[in-house]
Amino acid sequence: MSTKIRLCIMMFLQFFVWGAFFVPMGSYLGTLFSDRKDLNLIIGNMYATQTWAAIVAPLIVGFVADRLFNKEHVNGVLQIAGGALLWWCSTLNDSAMLFYGMLAFFICYMPTLALVNAITFQNVKNVEDEFPKIRLWGTIGWIVSGLVVAETMFGLFALPVLPGIENASSTNFPLKLSAVVSIVYGVFSFTLPPSPPQGKGTPFSFAKVLGLDAVVLLKQPAYRVFAICSFLICVPLAFYYARTNEFASAMAFGDKTQGVMALGQVSEIFFMALVPFFLRALGVKMMLLVGMWAWCLRYALFALMPENSAMLLLGIALHGICYDFFFVTGQVYTDRVAPPEMRTSAQVLVGLLTYGAGMLVGNLVLGYWGNELGLDPTTKAGWLADGKQFWLLPCGLAAAVAVVFFMTFWDNSGKEKKVA
After folding, report:
1. Which one of 85, 127, 208, 341 has the minimum C-beta count within 10 Å?
2. Contacting residues for 407 by C-beta, under 8 A, at least 6 apart
3. How far apart are CA 47 and CA 44, in angstroms?
4. Mean pLDDT of 248-263
5. pTM
6. 127 and 216: one domain?
7. pLDDT greater than 90 at residue 213
């Protein structure tokens, strides 16, 4: 089997494991803890385990995989351990134990997101040409996981691949499926191309591993605004990942929801291809603003038209614009602003600000907000009673960040001298 095919399979399995259980986890928790008054807090805290782990993940990658062992071996061990933990989590019905179990799983899983990229970079001849094509299989893996669990082809027709399992999204089946695939993937990882540690013998820098040496970039006013707004926009972003499946399931799509939500990743693939064109046509500022306003529009549709399945579908399909226009453009902008020797650290810093700190705050806020409203996320009546207020909060937050960004950000990356 060629190196490229093995790397494509690696990416497919990497995101299949994550997508299969992460999207429907809120629905499962709603079923498991339906009698708990603090259900919204439980859901928010459970999704926060991923963001807590994202903060510590660079330390594992930077110390273990960059200095001690081959990356494919580290990936294999972490995937096998993570699969075992995920299977254990599928057997738990105590919220505290499940929290610590999910936290342990994500501490194993989150470092592997960086590892698969590093393994790919180390084993292709032309990164710019080959990496996007290989990474695409990760998105395909996420899409396929949703179609398998929902047993539908994007909600259009049935895809009966799980005989005897009805409404799998509300059961522990997605956890078990991800656990099995993770263990198989872990074994497969030992067959990946050798990727020895490239930092062996070099001194370990806590600050550099966490991207903290890139803080110097915040001396640039434009980048400082970008960094702050990136953190803030990820607070409302967390609402989508944690609550959309259970919301859309109750309001319109039922057990087909995860398959329908896979259309968001299809949209992501489509708009990813258009990013270079729009970046040239609109520039960094307008691209980032369009991404922010897309989040606002999505939440407005959820809040104001909850029973209109077409509008819910539009909100899901906006994922391509929401993600690609903001995150991909932000990564390109960061690469443009940072000096060559600081580009990796700068990307790590942005990751900590967004998928780390921003999403963490967002998951805590959404749990508190749902609990404050008394939202019952297990029924359609519950979402109709309090869903409008629930979704208007992230809508307002996204709009506020967009306005602040519009008034304070000016892209001078092509004119200013890079800060060293």
Report:
1. 341
2. none
3. 5
4. 94
5. 0.90
6. no
7. no
